[in-house]
Amino acid sequence: MSTTREILDKALAEGRTALTAPEGRRICQEYGIATPGEGLATSADEAVRLAEELGFPVVMKIVSPDILHKTDAGGVLVGLKNAEEVASGYERILANASAYNPQVTVDGIQIQQLVSGGHEVIIGAVTDPTFGKIVAFGLGGVLVEVLKDVTFRLAPLSGDDALGMLDDIRAAEVLRGARGARPASRQALATMIERVGALVGDFPEITEVDLNPVFAGPDGAVAADVRILIGELPQEKARIPREKILEQMTRIFKPRSVAVIGASAEQGKIGNSVMRNLINGGYRGQIFPINPKATDIMGLPAYKSVADVPFDVDVAVFAIPAAFVPPALEQAGEKGVAGAIMIPSGFAETGNVEGQAEIVEIAARHGVRMLGPNIYGYYYTPENLCATFCTPYDVKGSVALTSQSGGIGMAILGFSRTTKMGVSAIVGVGNKADVDEDDLLTFFEQDDNTRAVAMHLEDLKDGRGFVEAARRVVRHKPVIVLKAGRTAMGARAAGSHTGALAGDDKVYDDILRQAGVVRAPGLNDMLEYARSLPLMPTPQGENVVIITGAGGSGVLLSDACVDAGLTLMDIPDDLDQAFRAYIPPFGAAGNPIDITGGEPPSTYENTVRLGLTDPRIHALVLGYWHTIVTPPMVFAELIAKVVQEERDKGNVKPVVASLAGDTEVEEACDYLFDHGVVAYPYTTEKPVAVLGAKYRWARAAGLL
Amino acid sequence: MSTTREILDKALAEGRTALTAPEGRRICQEYGIATPGEGLATSADEAVRLAEELGFPVVMKIVSPDILHKTDAGGVLVGLKNAEEVASGYERILANASAYNPQVTVDGIQIQQLVSGGHEVIIGAVTDPTFGKIVAFGLGGVLVEVLKDVTFRLAPLSGDDALGMLDDIRAAEVLRGARGARPASRQALATMIERVGALVGDFPEITEVDLNPVFAGPDGAVAADVRILIGELPQEKARIPREKILEQMTRIFKPRSVAVIGASAEQGKIGNSVMRNLINGGYRGQIFPINPKATDIMGLPAYKSVADVPFDVDVAVFAIPAAFVPPALEQAGEKGVAGAIMIPSGFAETGNVEGQAEIVEIAARHGVRMLGPNIYGYYYTPENLCATFCTPYDVKGSVALTSQSGGIGMAILGFSRTTKMGVSAIVGVGNKADVDEDDLLTFFEQDDNTRAVAMHLEDLKDGRGFVEAARRVVRHKPVIVLKAGRTAMGARAAGSHTGALAGDDKVYDDILRQAGVVRAPGLNDMLEYARSLPLMPTPQGENVVIITGAGGSGVLLSDACVDAGLTLMDIPDDLDQAFRAYIPPFGAAGNPIDITGGEPPSTYENTVRLGLTDPRIHALVLGYWHTIVTPPMVFAELIAKVVQEERDKGNVKPVVASLAGDTEVEEACDYLFDHGVVAYPYTTEKPVAVLGAKYRWARAAGLL
C-alpha cells in the first residue's frame, strides 16, 4: 500500500483530481490487478524498442497531467502493427497534443500491449452519496451501456460476494461461454472485483475507479485501461455504539413515564389528542401533562415545565409549535429525558433548515434522542403506548412498521385496523433529523415482541449503517423495505463510466438485496408482506407444491410461483401415486395437483395432509374453488384444523391459499388468516407473492 | 412469385423439408431481399474465378441436398483471402463431405462475398401453432441468444408495423447508433421484415425462414445467410362469416325463449339451480323446463323433450349428465335452437375426447352454436338472464367478462358482488369446443350494453381469428386479456434460430399488443381493470398530473406512473404559478403538486378544479391524506362534486385517487367509485395501474 499512498499524496498535493495512466497501473500492480505489458517512451526510438519488446500490435497513449480526455486531444493510437507505424505515431501524437493545448507538458507516450479477445467486461468503483464506496460489474459494450446490465455491491467485499456479482447480471450466461465462446475465468474476475473493493476501502480519497475494458479469458483477466479519480476524504459519519443505542431506544419504547409538552384539555388540539391516546390506549406508566396555564389536564396534575416534574421522565412528546420547541427541548435535555418525540412540523420540510439544525444541536448536546420532527408519533403495543395524535391502535402482534411520511403512516394504521393486523410498533420517522432506521432496527433486533420489521423510506441518512444493522437483524427476522422514489434517477455528475451507470435505484436495489432485505415493490405489497410474513413458519426447503380444486387457478398460481422465484417441486413417482390415490382419475397429479372441481372436503383434507406430512414438500399453495360440495367456510375450517393438527405434530410448513368464489370466500379468508393460514380472495398473485417474500428472506438469512 | 412457386414445387416433390442456399437466395431475389454477391462453383478453377469477380475475402459453402447442417459436415470455410486459399478450400470441403457421408451428392460449392460490419440482426418467420405465420426480429449474437431480446408480429405485416418492431426490442438504441456506431438503415430493415412477412403469407408451405445474420448499415441491409424450411400446407381454419356469428350470438344473448334440458324441482340439482336463477333473475322471455318425468316445474309446464315445446326455442341450457347429451342435442338441433349452453362436464377435460367430438359434430350439423361444455353457464344483465347454476347477479353495467375456467368465473362473480361492479355479461367458455372468444368479441363489439370486455384465457383456438376480432373491437372499446400459462414455455421442436426463440408467451405478448389488447398481469389486475376502465373517460392526451396532500404518496404515485408508462407532465411556468397561488409557500408545485398535509378542502378543490379546467392537463392522479381538517368523506364528496361539475362543463378527464388514512377512507373510496371516480385505499399502485391500462387502450385505439 505504500506505493498507492505515495502516488495519492503526490497527486493530491498537486491539486489533481485524476491519476495518470502509469500511476493507475502502478496502483493496480500493488493490488495484484493485471494490466497489459507497457512502458513509457520519451522518444520515438524508445517507443519502437518498447513496442518490439511487448510485441505488436500496440496501443500508444499520451501521458500528460494537462490532458484528461486523451482521445479528444488526439493522444491515442490503437493497433500499430510495426516499427514504422510506431515511430510516425509518436510524432503524430505530440503534434496533436500541441495543437490541442500549446502549453501542454508531455511526460512521454505510453506504449501498451494491445489486449483483446475473450470477454469484455467493466469493473469499477464509485462513491455513492448514500452508501459510500461501492463496486460495479458489468459486461462491456452494448450490454452495459444500452441495457444498463450492471450490478453493485458495497466495498470492500468478500470473494464470495464478488463471485455472486458475476451471476447477478442478466447476461451472466455469456461469461459461462454461451454460443460456443470460451468461458471467462470466474475466479480471476472475482479476484479483480474484490481487489478494486479493497483499494477504495483502503483509500477513501479514491472517488472513482474504472477498469474499462477488462478482457477476461479462461486463464485470467487483464484491465486494458485504468482510470482513477481522487478527491477529498469523505466525512466520517458519527456513529453511536450499539449498546448505547439499545439503552436509548429501550427507554423510548418502554418508558416508565411520558411527559406531554403542550398537553391540552381542549378537543381538536394535538396536545389533547396525544393525552387522550396515551390514557385511552391503556398506557400504564406515569403521564405528565406539561402546560404553563393549567393545573390539571384530564384528571392528571399538570406541570408548568418538564423541569418541574418531580419524577424521572423517559419520553417527552412535543405538541407545541416549532417556534417554542428549542427552549422546551433544552429543559427536557436538562431533565435527562431519553427521547424527544418531535411531532411539530415547520422544520426542514418547510425550508426551516436552521431551526432543525438548532434542535438537533440541543438534543445532541444533552444526549436526547429525537424522533422526527414532523411526525405523527409512535405506537408500541406491548406497552399499550399510543404516543401520537392519531387514533389508538391496540391489536397486538409481531410486526413493527415505520414510515418516513405521515400519509403512509396513516395508510399503515387504516390497513392494520381493517385487516386486524397485529403490530408491535408503528413509528413515524419524518425528517429523520436524529433517530433513523438504523436505530430502530437495533431496537427491533432484540425486541422479542417483534418478529418482522417493515419500513417505508425515501432515503437513508447513512446507507452503510443501515446495511450493517439490517444484516444483523435479517439473520433473525425479516426486514421488509418499501423504497420510494425508485424511478427518480438521481442526477449525478459522472466522471467515469461506472459513475454514469450508478443510477440511484439500481444501487439501492442491489445493496438492499445484499443486506438481505426483502424489498416490496409497492405500498400495498409492503402492507401485505407485513401482515403475512409473521404468520408463516419458515420453510425448510425450496419445494413448493400447488394443490387446487380449480384447474384455472392452478395455471395462474403456477405463473405466480415462477414470477415470485419459487420452485415448483418435481414430484417423485411414489408421491405422485400417493396423491393420485385421493383424486379422481381425470384429475391431474404432477404439480399443480388438480383435485378437480366437484370434490368433497375429504379430498382437500387428504391431499393437504399428505402435502404437510411428506417431508420432501416444504410449502403448500392452495387453490380453492367455491362449490356446494365444499362451501367456503367448510374449506376454511377444515384447512385451519388440518394445518393446526399437523403443526402440533411438528409438520410446520407455510400454507397460503387463493380462494375463488362468491363473496362467502371473503369470510373464509378472514377465518383462515385468524387461524394462521395466509389466504386471499379473488387473486392468485397475492398469496404467492407473500410466500415468495418469505422465501426471499429465508434465503437471505441462510436458512435454506 | 413464379420462381418461388417453382422452387417450392420442386423441393416438395422431392420430399425435402429444407431449401438449399442457392434456392433460398433465388427466393430472396424475387422478394427483393438483398443477399451477398455469390455464385455456384463446380470446380476449383471456377471457384477461384468467382471469388476474384466478387472480391476477397469470400465464404465457401457446400451445396448438397444430403447435408442440412453444413458446418457439422465441414462444409463451410470463412474468410478465404486469395486464389490459393480458395482453390485448396474447394478440395478440402469435398473431402470433408465425403468423410461425413460417403454417399453424398454435391451440387457444387457456393462462393459468397464475405459481408460484415454494421449491425448484426436476425430476421425470421416461423409457423406458430396458435397464430400461424409470424415474423421475428432481434439483434444478433448475445442479445438475442442470451437475453432473448426479440419481437414478433403476425405475418404479413405493414411497413409501419415492421418499423415498430425495430423500436420494440430492449436494445433498440443500438440500431440508432449508440456508442458512436453508425446507425442501421431503419427503412432497409423494415422493408426486409415486411418482405419476409409477405413471403410466408404468400406461401404457407414455407414453415420457417431464418435470415441470420443480416448485416445492416446506414445504406442498406444484406442477409448473409438464408435458411428456408418447408412443409405441408397448414389446414385452413373454418370461419363463420361475421354477420352469421352476430345473428347466432344475438339469439343466444337476447333469446326470446330458453329451454332447460334436465330442469328439476329438486333442490341441489343443477337443473333446479338453473331454473331458479332464470326465474329469480327476472328473465322475461319464455322458459321451458324439459324433463320426461314431470308435468310442471316451479309453476311452469314441463315438456318431455325439447321437440315437444310448441314454440320457437332460442337457447337450450343443458343440465344433464354427459352421457345423455348427444340425443338431447340432436333434438335441440332439429328444433332449430340457436345456442346450446353445455354445462355438463365429462368431455375432453376428463379425457373423453370422442364424446366431445361427437357433440361438436351434432351441433355443427344442425347449425347450433355450443357454449362449453364444462361451464357454469352465462349471464347477460340487460336481459336479466342468469342461465347458470351459480347465484343470480343483477348489478347492471357495461363490462362483459368471460372465463375459460369455472374457478375464475366464480372469482369474477364474487369480486363483482363485493365491489358492486356493474357488468353486462359474465360468460363461461370452458372447453371452447365451439363458441370461443372471437364469437363473443363479435357480439360485444356491436352490443351497446357493453363498453369494455375482459377475458380470462388459457389458449386460443384460432389466434388469428382472435386478433382480427380484437382489432375491430379495440377501436371502440377496451379489450382486457388475462392470459394464463404465461410462464409455461411451450416445448417446441426448433428447426431454426427463429423457431427456438418463439417461446409461447413472448409471442402471445407481442401479438396481443399488436392487436391493441390490454394485457392484465394477474387475475386481480384483470378484475380491477374491468371494474375501473368503463368508469374512466378516455384521456385526450398524455399529460398526467399528480396532486397530493401527502408528499410521501406523491413520491410513490410518481414511481407508479413511471411503472405504468404514464407521462408526468412537465408543468409550464404559468400553470406552475397558477397552482402555487393555491398552496402554502412550503408546498411544492411542479409535478407532483404537493399541497401539503394540513390543508382545508378548499385547497383540494382549487387545485383539482384547475387541473380539470386547464386544457393542457389530460388526467389527474390524486393523493389524499386523512386529516381532521379534511376528513375522508368530506374529500370524497368534494371531489365527486367537482369532477361532476367540470364534466358537465365539458371538462371530461380521467381522475383516479389513492387514499391514505384510517378505515374511513374505505367508505370514501366506495363513495368515489359510486360517483365515477376510481379510488383505492392503502395503495398508490392500483389507481395508477388502472389509469395506465386506460392509456394503453387509448393509444392502441389511435385516440391519442
Automatic annotation (TrEMBL), chains A, B:
GO terms for molecular function: ligase activity. Residues 25-61 form the ATP-grasp domain. It holds the Pfam family Ligase_CoA_2. Keywords: ATP-binding, Ligase, Nucleotide-binding. This is Acetate--CoA ligase family protein. It comes from Nonomuraea recticatena.
